[in-house]
Amino acid sequence: MTGVALAVAAVIVLVTGVIRAAGASLVRTPRADAVHDAADGDGRAVKVAELLEERPQVQPALGMIHTGLLVSAAIPATWALSRLSGGFSLAIALVSLGALFVLIGDLLPRSYGRSRPATLAYTFAWLLRPAIALGHAATDLISDLDEDIVEEEDDADDVQEKELISSVLDFTDTLVREVLVPRIDMITLTATATAESALDLILEAGRSRIPVLGDGIDNVEGVLYARDLLTLMDEGGEESTLVSDLMRSAYFVPETKRVSELLREMQASQVHLAIVVDEFGGTAGLVTIEDLLEELVGEIADEYDDEVPMVTALGEGSYLIDARLGIDELGQLIGAELPDEEWDTVGGLILGLAGRVPKEGEAFELEEHVFTADRVQGRRVSRVRVHSR
Predict the structure, then answer these.
(1) How far apart are CA 77 and CA 3, in angstroms?
(2) Is residue 300 in a domain?
């Protein structure tokens, strides 16, 4: 039995050392580095970035676990030594045991972890998460500090920083099809259009880049840049010049690409607009660098934007929703878990509930909420009214 007790103590001390080293590595890891690595697709960095959102709580929580584990290891080890020896030799053994525990369970791991920021934290993120959660819970039990007071003391900068980090973490998992401008909303030109008609469209729509089509929406031949068109006009070019002579090559991406990867590619290629294609090669829509950045920092409006709000509160838990609003955003707004396996927008949800193109004013119930197709344009639901039953 003494051998088993010593073995148990040794295992506990080793686990304690691993947690101490990983914790030291964690607190030496800049949160910005973890967020950057998470944006590059490192799943371990995502966990570390989440843990570092509450950096002040990390060390107390890990300290509680560290102390508890060392005490847990000391109990069976002390019992075993007391059975094996006594008197002065027992005292020497206990002092040596304490020194060994401090060396292996604290000093050496801490030094090792500090010299390797991020590396050990990423490797043992799976162990740090439950350890910090357990330590935080234990700290709460013996602390007189009310959690609500702590939250009230968070200043506005901390709240904004958390929101930004949350956006970055969500950004790494977002697909292009979730942020694209759908094909039905695309403003396009035909390759046979003239420079004069193209200029009129650019002035009317306020676009700097417009896709150029061949014989249909699924045949995008290129992109016309307003700057190229204005240069032609400034140099006295013919207004009858065809758009096909001015357009540049289009940049195509699949709708299943992650927006974080696309943003890096567009930056490297100096491309501001990409045509998004579906699995069959058809045009799903388009996406711009502005669309990608808005996923991180929110809506970006310029002096000429006349933005219609995506959500209009009507009172008494009723809302008028732009059908392009994301399912997750609507779920957060009304406090409900909405199905999102087969669609990304509120319009897709309505089509799914109806199983067809609904009629204007037709209502559908889902759990405690009623969704009404408030405006239907052709085969498209463009506005939805939502209220609780």
Answers:
(1) 9
(2) no
Token digits for 249?
């090559």
Q: Which residue has the tokens 């085969």?
A: 379
Residues in the chain: 389
Indicate the pTM of the whole model: 0.49
Distance of CA 162 to the CA centre of its chain: 12
Q: Tell me: the pLDDT tens digits for 304-350? A: 555 667 888 888 788 898 888 888 888 888 888 888 777 778 888 88
> How far apart, in whole angstroms, are the C-alpha atoms of residue 172 and residue 32?
15
Count of domains observed in the chain: 3
Q: pLDDT (tens digit, 9 = 90+) per residue, 5-21?
A: 888 888 888 988 888 88
Q: What is the CA 297 to chain-centroid distance, rounded?
A: 12
In degrees, rounded to 5, the angle at the alpha carbon of residue 178 between the alpha carbons of residues 176 and 184 is: 95
Residues 233 and 349 in one domain: no
Same domain? For 152 and 49 the reply is yes
Give the other-Cβ count within 10 Å of 1's Cβ: 9
With respect to residue 168, please indicate whether it lies within any of the assigned structural domains: yes
